[in-house]
Amino acid sequence: MSVLAIEGGRKLEGEIAVQGAKNAVLPILAATIMNGGKNTIYNCPKLRDVDKTIEVLEYLGCKVKRQENTLTVDSSSLKEFTIPEELMRQMRSSIIFLGAIVNTFGRATVSMPGGCEIGNRPIDLHLKALRQLGIEIKEEHGYIECSANVIKGANIHLDFPSVGATENIMLSSCRAKGTTTITNAAREPEIVDLQNFLNDMGAKISGAGGSVIQIDGVQTLHGTEHTIITDRIVAATYLACGAATGGSIVLKRVDPAHMEAMINVLKDMGCRLTSEKDKIILYPCKCLKEIPMLRTMPYPGFPTDTQSPFMTLAAIADGTSIFVETIFENRYKHVEELVRMGADIQVDGRVAVVRGVKKLSSANVSARDLRGGAALVVAGLAADGITRISNVEYIDRGYEDIEKYIGYLNGNIKRINC
Ligand code: EPZ
Prior knowledge:
- The chain is an alpha/beta fold.
- Helix content is 31%, strand content 25%.
- The protein has 2 domains: 2-18 and 230-417, Enolpyruvate transferase domain (UDP-n-acetylglucosamine1-carboxyvinyl-transferase, Chain, Alpha-beta prism); 22-227, Enolpyruvate transferase domain (UDP-n-acetylglucosamine1-carboxyvinyl-transferase, Chain), CATH 3.65.10.10.
- The protein contains 14 helices and 24 strands.
- The protein is globular.
- The chain binds ligand EPZ.
- Ligand EPZ binds next to helix 1, helix 5, helix 6 and helix 12.
């Protein structure tokens, strides 16, 4: 258990290179089991979710070595086609292994991933799509058993552009007989990174980043190396930290094109930002203006993962902001913690009304999920006094060494291990 003690009131300034993307590296690590070779992954962030994924890879029989932000995965001696309950429950996004395992062994058994802090996280779209690929699926006793003699290409329309379902279909079908087309596919940059990794392994996939993805089944796949894209959600969180403290920061190794929705909201709030090829510069912002309406949407809309850090900005802005969380049903758990710090926020179902206050006050608060925890870091930096955040392991799931990076930006966060 550890606590972050955050000194409020310091203007952030300086520059940092942003970490690799959690939501890109997780499906790419799952993909490594399919090629039976040696894989080198650069710019891999040091995160709890990556640690848990490495545990799954090793359970399946992979040899994994990590040197700082470089990971090598040798999947030549795979031995397992199951993921036990305790591993699945530690990280529900391990469902992304389903497609990779069934594609490799012709069968897979994983425990139902179950819900998490932000919602019940159904997988019906995943399972419906896999069935369309000719994979037989039995769901009983809390387990999902898949088997397929032959995986056949299919035309799959997703009722919702689910990121995980899109990824599972890409993984399941890259060695299918024939061609698979996904319509209404998720368009996130992490899907493009997965396509690039799979093609580097010998797959034949095109269209990622758009709503139609085509996967032409191939016979063989091989090991490869790859550099993970930058984490746009972490980058936006650090911009929120800068804006909340009236600071001026430079983010390097970012792709501004992946962050347009978030950059536009910051500009609408009165922030001044400039961007070059792989850099974003935030200039000091005297006072923030309200966000009349912020609705979370699938990419390229405003990402649900930055709803909570941006709600902290709205909590100290002039005027009243309205948030509508359209993606997950339980993603306002940070609200009561922000209210403890003096925020004025009312929630009714998917809608949150945020009336800006002059200043937040430091308090002892508790992270209740990954991005809600990040929102509390933004709040602690903006408040007066020392804010203590418990349950920091939630934040460590997605933010590499957050106290180190904030320290590079002249912030002061101490990690206290209790
Ligand atoms: C991915 O989750 C990300 N996680 C999430 O990031 C992100 O918030 C989400 O995409 C949306 O962008 C990873 O990539 C590991 P979805 P995923 O399938 O794939 C419903 C973070 O903080 N749905 O696009 O689980 C679902 O209930 C995490 O980094 C079904 O109904 O998201 C939700 O309402 C949180 N049936 C919506 O779709 C299904 O079979 C979006 O889910 C699948 C999803």
